[in-house]
């Protein structure tokens, strides 16, 4: 399998198909891994990648990188999927294609004792269904893949390269301009924006008008402001 060719800002680490890229990155990051190291699981049916970053801001701002990766992934997919297949984002980190779950972003971050402190590392993971789901794709109506939606020629390596290019571009905009352009792009793809929706959170259900993400990255539904902190995973 040919390896993805990434922009110079990234360093690729390929791992065996049975090794989760996100789990490997989250274990390696606390031991010291270079900023921009991309772990990639070598498989053809599914994209599994993770990028290790050295944060330049306190935790609350650093977690906005989840939105940055989602927006970058949306742009990468937009150039690859057939026209008329809408890409959408659902809180906290689901990526939908034509209304079905295509993939999601995960995040792990070093714990800090002071909210003003810079976390020493952050890991963003991305999983995207690429190949066929199986002999009977209709059995999982809530899930889909690029193949099932007609993007049959897209390869995992091609998708990794595109996501990294767009992530580099959007990270630059985020660092230069703040969250505003990211917020606008995320909300343009927010699933059911402006409609009444429901979210299950910590054993309870929240219902209300979906208003997208706010200027500080919190998700707005009804009168609630939901933050990404509860979804942060710690190093195994």
TrEMBL record:
Gene Ontology MF term list: ligase activity
Domain of life from the UniProt record: Bacteria
Keywords from the named record: Ligase
The keyword Nuclease is assigned to this record: no
InterPro entries for the chain: aa-tRNA-synth_II/BPL/LPL (IPR045864), BPL_LPL_catalytic (IPR004143)
Residues annotated as transmembrane: none
Keyword Ligase appears in the UniProt entry: yes
BPL/LPL catalytic domain mapped to chain residues: 6-187
Name of this chain's protein: Biotin/lipoate--protein ligase family protein
Organism: Benzoatithermus flavus
Phylogenetic lineage: Bacteria, Pseudomonadati, Pseudomonadota, Alphaproteobacteria, Geminicoccales
């Amino acid at each position: 399998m040919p390896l993805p060719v990434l922009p110079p800002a990234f360093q690729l680490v390929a791992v065996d198909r049975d090794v989760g890229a996100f789990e490997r990155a989250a274990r390696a990051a606390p031991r010291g891994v270079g900023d921009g190291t991309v772990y990639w699981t070598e498989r053809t049916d599914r994209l599994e990648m993770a990028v290790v970053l050295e944060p330049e801001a306190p935790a609350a701002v650093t977690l906005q990188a989840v939105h940055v990766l989602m927006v970058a992934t949306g742009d990468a997919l937009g150039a690859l999927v057939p026209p008329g297949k809408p890409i959408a984002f659902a809180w906290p980190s689901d990526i939908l294609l034509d209304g079905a779950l295509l993939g999601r972003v995960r995040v792990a971050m070093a714990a800090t004792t002071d909210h003003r402190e810079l976390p020493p590392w952050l890991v963003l993971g991305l999983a995207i269904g690429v190949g066929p789901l199986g002999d009977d794709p209709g059995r999982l109506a809530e899930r889909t893949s690029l193949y099932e939606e007609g993007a049959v020629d897209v390869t995992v390596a091609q998708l990794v390269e595109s996501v990294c290019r767009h992530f580099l571009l959007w990270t630059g905009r985020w660092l230069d301009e703040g969250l505003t352009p990211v917020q606008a792009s995320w909300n343009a793809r927010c699933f059911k924006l402006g409609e009444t929706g429901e979210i299950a959170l910590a054993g309870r259900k929240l219902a209300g008008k979906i208003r997208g993400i706010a200027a500080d990255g919190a998700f707005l539904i009804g009168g609630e402001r939901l933050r990404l902190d509860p979804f942060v995973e710690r190093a195994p």
